[in-house]
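Filed under: proteins

Residues; backbone shape codes:
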Amino acid sequence: MPDSATCADCLAEVTTSTDRRHGYAFTNCTNCGPRFSIVQALPYDRPNTTMQQFVMCPTCQAEYDDPRNRRFHAQPNACPVCGPALSIYARDTQGEWATSITTDADALQRAVAALQAGQIVAVKGLGGFHLMVDATTSAAVAQLRERKPRRDKPFALMVRDTAQAASLCIVSEQAAALLTSAEAPIVLLPRLPDAPVAANVAPDVSTFGVMLPATPLHHLLLRLLDRPVVATSGNLQDEPICTDEHEATHRLGAIADLFLVHNRPIARHIDDSVLWLVRGEGRLLRRARGYAPLPVLLPAPVPPVLAVGAHLKNAVALSVGRQVFISQHIGDLETPQAIAAFERVIADFLRLYETTPQAIAHDLHPDYYSSQWARQQPAPTIAVQHHHAHLAACLAEHGATGHALGIIWDGTATAANGIHLGWRVFLHGDALAAIDLELHGLAVGQRQHGGAGHLAFALGSPRQVAHAADGKHLAAVLGRGHVAHLFAIRAHGGAFAAKEPVGIDLQLQSAIAEDALGHHGHHVDAIVRAADDEGCRLVVGIGGAGADAGDERARAREQVSRAIQEWHRGLGAGQHHQR
């Protein structure tokens, strides 16, 4: 029962001047509206939601009782007569935050006027607060960056409709379908070079994160303003988003100039979901509003297990029979507020699904708060290596039950032997085997073609690579301070070979690399594979005039990705049978 974005029928009512719900910010029906953000207990009936305090007027009750009406048993059903209302929090003459009860229309107009004046407005929405500014005014965006603070990270944009989105980005048919879906996520889209928004909204990136309004409140706000807004999470760094106006004025009072709030309580915080398009299909980067707590269906029932996630980008999951219910995004467990949210979500899940876990799965890293919390509970614990957890989640999501090759690229994680790893390659079947990969970036001479020896020198083992006699030349180049980039990927472990130290073959032809990088003005110096007692190493050398380190790092990862794809295709064709 995820929350669902405003349907076309409800939006038509909100924007029709003769309709009794014209301009009403909390219009909903059985096809849309708040669900997970308001439910307090199951079953999902009005007395078990935060709407229990709002008694339906006779007209709304008649809609609710009529099987022919689309509001038949719509639990949050409401109208301007009997439902939630908007209000404003602004500083009084003493500098304190004070509420002023106005009409919904007046509250919206005050918020719009503040945005037009370049002010920061905190808006209470479905699952928490957004901090909003006019996205076309660089001074307003800069002020938000300074106050939040958020120096360079791109901001998300909320736009009125797909036509406004198309004025900022390339909006494909698939992207438009995602934007207008019931989930209404943030979608990462290629930006247009002349997009009419401030340059500091998303500096130095080629995409915008764009979403459409998910509630009538946001539809009304964006229609009145008629320009895109920055809509970023209403929280302090590493904290969950605020859900209550009193908490928000306390925690966000130094950021916002005005608060647009309502009196419908939020049962649990829910961020905006984030997706990007891969080959025309949406891939979740952050699973929250619209998707949580939808379950993943397993092929067979399993005992109840609580999985408590990792330290960063945390979420939790709970298995109930064949279903694994996945929580909303919680965030990084770096602050007392985030830790409190983590514990609150766990208690919420166990209460909501009336389940006592027989075991608790946690990350193998011993210092993560989630791991420490798990070990303090009475239930038995299961430590799961971080990359293995990613693979298992991927297999479950796609319903895969047979043998699988998994290539997991992620941040540093702890392995069973205590070594910190970046990437892992798994062969998953009757037994689990793994190869561990490291990525290293090194500065080398710009457009200096020293051959394989340069790359071997970077690894500190030139004797393992043919034609390695020019290591001294590379040292001289480094000494002159010219800059390009080398990237070394080292593989550890003998899982794919009987006698070789590591049998994985990550060779990549230079022609493939040139094809991928040529249009960026870069060239590939060389690509070599070397094996020694410590393992197998693939080295990608990339150069280019004025090359940026971050750009080169991204290109190197692209090359490694293509190398692994080539290797994977070889495995599928029956090649490298010992690897």
Q: What stands out?
A: The chain has a mean pLDDT of 80. The two ends are 45 Å apart (CA to CA). Residues 433-572 form one domain. The chain has 15 helices and 22 strands.
